[in-house]
Amino acid sequence: MKFNIIGRKITVNEKNSEYIKKKIGKLDKFFKSEAEARIVIGTVKDKEYIEATIYSEGMIYRAEVTDVDVFTAADKVVDLIERQIRKNKTKLEKKTRREAFDDGRLLSGDDYVDGEESSEFNIVKTKRFHVKPMSAEEAVLQMNLLGHNFFVFKNHETDELNVVYKRKDGDYAIIESIE
Asked: What is the pTM of this model?
C-alpha cells in the first residue's frame, strides 16, 4: 500500500508515521492491486484526529476519528474502514479478495457483528428537476434557501453537472466529475 501522510497543525514524526503505516497496512489484505492511502493527521482543540481515505480499484473507503491521541484514533479508523468493507462485502466481492473475509474477526481482534444484509438498496423516492446553469455561489445560496445539505446544479463556466454540499466544519465544497 502506498501512503501519503499529511499533518495539519501537527508535525508528523517517525513514530506516528510508522504506527499508522503498520495499522492501516493491515487492510492491504482486502485489496487485489496496490491501494493508495491518504492519511491526514491534525488537532482540534485538545484532541487529535485522523482522516483516512483509501483508493483501490475505483473504490474509495473513508473514515474520520477524533480521539485523545493519534494511536487510539488510528486503531478506530482501521476498524471503521474494515467494517465498511465487510458490511458491503456482497457488493464488493468482485473487486476484493474473497479469502480476506474468511475469519469473522476484525483486525483489532473484536468479533464482527453483521449488520442488516440486503442484496439491494431500498430506494423509496425519485426526484426529477430541471437543472439550470448557475455559479457555485448561486448554488450555495439556493441550497441554503431550500434547507438542504447538498444541491445539484449545472456549472455555467464548465457546462457540467456539479454538486455543492456543506461540510461538517461549516464550509462548502463542490464535487466535479472528471473523465
From this structure: 0.57
